[in-house]
Design goal:
The chain is elongated and about 65 Å long. The longest helix is centred in the last third of the chain and has 21 residues. The chain is built from eleven helices and no strands. By secondary structure, the protein is mostly helical.
Amino acid sequence: MKAESIVFAIAGMCFGVILGWVLGSQQAGPSAPVAAAAQPASAPANTSQTPVLDEAKVQSLQTILTSDPKNTGALVQLGNTYFDAQQYPDAIKYYEQALEIAPNNVDASTDLGVSYYYANRADDALRQFETSLKLDPKHSKTLLNKGIVLAFGKQDLDGAATAWNQVVALAPGTPEADAARRGLEGITASRANASAPAAK
């Protein structure tokens, strides 16, 4: 996929506002419609127009796979191509096929987890991220995405903060660390706003 994770989609969002919605839904109790809080994060970054599938690239990669069905690179590229077109079920299919052949490919594993999340399968995404972290416990993109899914998919701000603090410690100065820091600042700000007395 173009960004290899949802870091760049999430980095442009206002963490404080979205996390405020998450925090508000937590305080409102189990009857609150928490799915609405997750919706902005699970929506594709480019909503102004629907991305178009690169049919020529798909055909080219399918031709490679016809002669070499176990070509992991071609399978991952197909997954990326479908992901970029926001066709997540197809992306999932090709990432899963790639991982059947190369189960230690941490990037493909994380891309699969991100695709699960965009397909509204947060629990599957988190399980896949755990698989990625078994392969590489310091994989910053996996940790960042785990935090995003915990925050927006599961409304678990404490878990998200733990993952994001790991990103900041492991990958200082990277786009992942910058996004994780913004997430942590959003959690802090939203909690401060939630605990402030209401204006009279």
